[in-house]
Fold:
Amino acid sequence: MQRLTNKQIVLGITGGIAAYKSAELTRLLKGAGADVQVVMTPAAIEFITPLTLQALSGHPVHQHLLDPDAEAGMGHIELAKWADMVLIAPASADFMARLNSGQGNDLLSTICLATDAPIVLAPAMNQAMWRDPQTQSNATNLQTKGIRLLGPGVGEQACGDTGPGRMLDPLEIAEQTAALFDRGLLTGKHVFITAGPTREAIDPVRYISNHSSGKMGYALAEAALDAGAQVTLISGPVNLPAPPRCQRIMIESAAQMLTASLQHIDQCDIFIAAAAVADYRPSAVAEHKLKKGKEEIMELHLIKNPDIVASVAALHNKPFTVGFAAETRDVIHYAQSKLQQKNLDLIIANDVSRSDIGFNSDDNAVTVVSQSQTQPLPLCSKRQLAAQLIEIIAIQQAALSSDHTPMPEKS
Ligand code: C5P
Structure:
C-alpha cells in the first residue's frame, strides 16, 4: 500500500477503548507515505498518551482549541486547510452527535467545521449505543452530508458484548482511506437522477400511475456515487431505500418532479431521466372522493404533463442530458428521433416488448444512442448495467465539456 504518498491526513482520536488501535493506524498511514498530524479530544487522552502518538506521527499532538502556542504554529484553521483528509478513528457516539449538530466546542470539531477536505469516520462504541436510534439517525445524516463512515465492524467488544460497533482493524481503515484517494470518474460532478413512476391524482384517494419499480434509476444513483459523484435522486413513490450518501427528494406528480428537477439545476453537471413520467394527468383533481354513478361509462379528461427531460435540455446552460426510451418496436429509430426532439446528449433505448427485461425486472439490456453512434449493451443485472452506463456517460460528458472549454488565449 503506497497510495498515500504526499497525502496530508489529520487523524482525530476521540474517547474510546479503541483509541489504542490509533497508534497502529498512525504507523500504517505513515508507512503508506502520508504525513499525519494527530488531534486528540480530552477524552481520548484518558485512553492513550499523546506522547505515543507524537513519537509515531513525528509531530506534536494537537489537543486544545484555545492554545496560544498552537495558534501561533498550527491552529485549528491551519490544520483544517492543511488536511487532504480528516480521518477520525475512533469516532465515539458523542463525537458523531456533536459533528451532526454542527458544534465547534473542541479542537477536532472546529477543524471539521472549517475544513474543505473529506471527513471520514471510523465509529467505535458499544453495540447498544451504535444501535440506538439517535446514533443511527446521526450516522445517516452525516452520510447524507457527504461524510464517509468506515465500519463499524461486528464482533466481540471490550465490554464483553457482541454485536456491531467495533472499530475496524487499523489495516482495513488504512486501506479504505487509501482507496478513497483514488479519484472516481465523476469526482467533483453533481448528478441529478429522476427515478420511479409519477402519480397523477384523480381525487383524494385515486391516481393514474404505472408499474415502474425505480430499480434502474436507483442503480444509476449507486453507480454514480461509486464513481465519486454527488447525487441528487428525485424519486417517485417506490419501495426502495435511499442509497447512503445521496440526497433523495421524494415527489408524487410530474409537476412536482419538474419543480424538484429545476430547483438547483444550475448546480447539475449531468441530468439522467430514468423516471417513467405519466404523459397525461387529469385536467382537474376532484376535491372529494368521486362517487359511483348510474352511468356505465365514466369519462376522464386528461391534459399533457410537462416533459421534464426536454425542459432541462432546453435550458441555456443545459447539463449533459440523458434520457431513456422504452419502446416495443423500431427501438433504435424511435430513440434517435427522441434524441433529436428532446435535444438530448444521449438516450438509452430498451425494448420493453421483451418479458425478461424492463420495468419490474432485475435485469436489463439496452442500446446507448448518441448523435454519432449506437452501442448495444447485452443483458445483465441493472446494477452491472448501471456501472457500464455511468462509465459511458462520464466519458462522453468529459469529452463534451473539454470540447466546450475555451482555448487559452495566446500571450
Ligand atoms: O417521450 P417518452 O416518454 O418516451 O420519453 C422518455 C424519456 O423522457 C425518459 O427519459 C423519461 O424520464 C423522460 N420524460 C420526462 N418527462 C415526461 C415524459 C418523459 O422527463 N413528461
Summary: The chain is about 35% helix and 25% strand. The two ends are 43 Å apart (CA to CA). Residues 194, 254, 273, 275, 277, 279, 305, 307-309, 323-325, 338 surround cytidine-5'-monophosphate (CB under 6 Å). The longest strand covers residues 320-327.
